[in-house]
Amino acid sequence: MDVPVYDMSGKTIAQMTIDEKSLGGTLNPALIKQAYVMYHANLRQGSARTKNRHQVEGSTKKLYKQKGTGNARHGDRKANLFKGGGHGHSKKRTREDFHSEMPKKMRRKANRNALLAKLMDAEVRVIDEISFSEPRTRAFKSFLEAIKVDRSALVALPHCSEKSLNARLAGRNVEDATLVPAEQINCFSMLNHRYLVIGRKDLEAWLNGPCSQTGKIAKISPLGRKTEEAAK
């Protein structure tokens, strides 16, 4: 698959060849959904709390007398039947655990398959180098318009790089743009945005990095981990 490479002005300057087989070859919707649900569930803190009628602030005065009015029997207005009252079965202080897991190889395959889906829909913008001379939001918006990004965009930038500092400062206030480190893009973040904007070198590093190990080699000699000899 040939993907066009753009410069900062939106002009096509080269072609980048990506092997579809390395991304799964064909789409696997079930695997992508499983990974998406996992990433989504792991964002939940499980710390939601609600108040019962004794914790709601307000008067404890009885609304009206018990008998003789023809109305139902009520105490104060903090009962769960009234607007602003407490919850009948309130959530207590037990933190709920929504954490979900997937095998590492399945997770990596899902991330790569999600990238394949984006490439097939022409929703990936590969840039030769994302760099700004000044941290100006207007320049960042003009850059997105030049590469024809008219919807939400996930902009992947090098992590802790001085070259990308101006880009991070310029894009952090853009409403429809989300900035993430290039090595941390995953199925959930890609599918939550219409476009993926990433530098050519960053995309090559992601494709050839630890994410590329989707077989037994991931356990035998994993990338990104220092060996004992190198540590010494």
Describe the secondary structure blueprint for this structure:
Elements: E1 2-6, E2 12-17, H1 29-41, H2 104-120, E3 124-127, H3 137-146, E4 153-157, H4 165-171, E5 177-181, H5 187-191, E6 195-199, H6 200-208, H7 217-220, H8 228-231
Parallel strand pairs: 1-3, 3-6, 4-5, 4-6
Antiparallel strand pairs: 1-2
Helix pairs in contact: 1-2, 3-4
Report on this structure.
The chain is of the alpha/beta class and about 230 residues long. It has two domains: about 1-40 and about 100-230, Ribosomal Protein L4, Chain: A; about 50-95, no CATH class. The chain contains eight helices and six strands. Strands 2-1-3-6-4-5 form a six-stranded mixed beta sheet. A hairpin with a 5-residue loop joins strand 1 (about 1-5) and strand 2.
